[in-house]
User: Fold these one by one.
Assistant:
Number 1:
Amino acid sequence: MDKLVIDGGKPIRKKLFPQRIMFDEKEVKIITEMMKNATKENTAKYLDRYAGLQVDTYEKEFAKFFGTKYATAVSSGTAAIHSAIASLDLEPGDRIITTPITDPGTVMPIIFQGLIPVFADVDYDTLNLTTETIEEKIDEKTKAIIVVHLAGVPCEMDKIIELAKRYNLKVIEDCAQSHASIYKDKYVGTFGDIGVFSLMSGKHITSGGQGGMIITDNEEYYWKAKRFADRGKPFGIENPKGNVCIGLNYRMTEIEAAIGRVQLKKIKKIAEKRFKIVEELRKGFKNLKGFSLWKRPKDSKPNYWFCFVKVEQGKFKFNKWKLAEILSKEGLPIGAHYVIPMYENPFLKQRKTFGTSEYPFKPYAPEIVYKCPVAEKALNSHITLYLNECWGKKEVEDTIKIFERVEKFCIK
Ligand SMILES: Cc1ncc(COP(=O)(O)O)c(C=O)c1O
């Protein structure tokens, strides 16, 4: 008799789902060469961007790929967001609107710059910000928007840019999860004033475990971000007399850039493959009654970093936590939840910022309260399926079969 694995049944899939294969001989070769040279010359100097060409070249190649004038490589996605925000030269207490469904790396740099994060709600079907939710939060202190293309699904950037222009707001696109995702024939990251990327190990491509990139067409933001990411060095200034602003050391290393350059060549294929896998999954999910995939906006081609699966909990005997456990026991790479709403994290709830000062909330926004009901509902009704570009037809078929089986046993 057919039974769920959790009840002692046999799994549909005997093998584990495939792991990603991120590297090949090309990364090994370049790093081996670099280390041999460093050892021969007995110096670590050439591993720093000042004495090498890898970071400079990576920046040029990254900008070329995205069709922007400038790119600045940094040490993480968080560093990229921090440098991008710093380049806007905002005043303490100014506000930046962003999404509550993201990584802390989107939000913490706002606070570090003495600015107030304001969370706009999301669209239930895409889990992304929309013009309507952003507009509700705009006030006279709002100076910028950070949009996040969550799990690779683009926000509707044409409308968001139009809104931002209307209110004279700057737009930073957080593309940590959306390398080479396309919206209306353009890569995300190229719509706003600045696009930022995380290149850490789990992302579509990496620059060696950690890394980040800032892209822009705006020369002023480019220099300011570059200076901020290197302790205020006077890049782009004639006859400098010293360091020109405060900043941090967010420099990328030569080894990271060398890996990043090889990886950049792989991004198109990875994005394309993931797009196809999820679009195939969508076909299978059409026959399900209680599980469905989240929406792909019109005219978009997401790179799908992972897959949100909506669970209509009223139709099942169990809640989504139990269903995620059942699916996971069937062998699927499933997470019961992605994140908690950003404002539920202790660092925001308890305003753990600078000592006991609560700066910048005190003095600039002591009264601010965060609540995004749609985001909360969306997070409470979605589970996450972790696919990757190494999946083939069989993995797609098995995934659909597993969801069908779990639905058969668990639906009311
Ligand atoms: C949307 C988003 N923004 C920012 C970050 C921070 O990037 P990093 O971990 O490279 O600092 C991440 C990392 O997962 C992310 O997913």
Number 2:
Amino acid sequence: MVVPFIIHPKVVHTPVVDRDFVLVAQQFSILPNATIPNSNAMDWNFLTLNGRSGPYTTPLVCKLGERVRIRFINFSTLHQHPMHLHGHTFWITGTEGGRIPDSAWIPSNNVVVGVAQSRDVEFIANNPGDWVLHCHMFHHMMNHMTSQVGPIIRQVKNDPGFQVPGYPQIMKGMSSMKMEGMKAVSEGDNEYAMKMTMKDMQKITSRRETQGMRDGWYKGVKGLFSVVRVLPPELYDKLMNTDEPIPPNSSTPWNPHGRGAMPGMRMSQAVTP
Ligand SMILES: [Cu+2]
């Protein structure tokens, strides 16, 4: 387990942020069927943010208009992480050495965080919607060289490629799963097959922070991914301060059910400090 040790300044930095997140990136070598990471390995196949891989990472929920800081800390042993935020432009405002003078802030939407470095970024959450935040190294957008942890994303039925016994080709889509009691079991019937239980599914979708996201959002959030959610105040309050159910597609601009975009939604935005 890793926790950040942050010393706050005696005099608060301005402009003051409304929300302050920390994301610690790590990487592990977890070989097929292993239950513990191989810490001697020089190659890595699992990436985590705050100890979890997407889609198990917890979305960062913000209210529209807030000034948000994210502190990225790279606790990986071997790799840099170019962290990329969709929908917003941020400024790089701090490093592991402290605050950067305002005049030297760099506008960006991607910041490289080297091993043992930290990078603070700040942005104004002025673009409503759910925006992925992820490392842009392609192999870090997935785990163990497959496009998804768990048998969710591949929807190709009867693809002979999946008949190769072993790992990870056996990971079939939900379309090739059958339900056995409370368990969804791959039809591959291979001892290495990934088994997804309803409990796993529930773990992904039942967290309060994920309520109202687009149907199937977890299919595109994997590896070193999280989601920044920028919600209009009413939706934010309903989500974070009540137990009311929030239907899928409540906070996304493009949804398959034609509920229409949230007001003010746009694809990209650059603003000045
Ligand atoms: Cu990375």
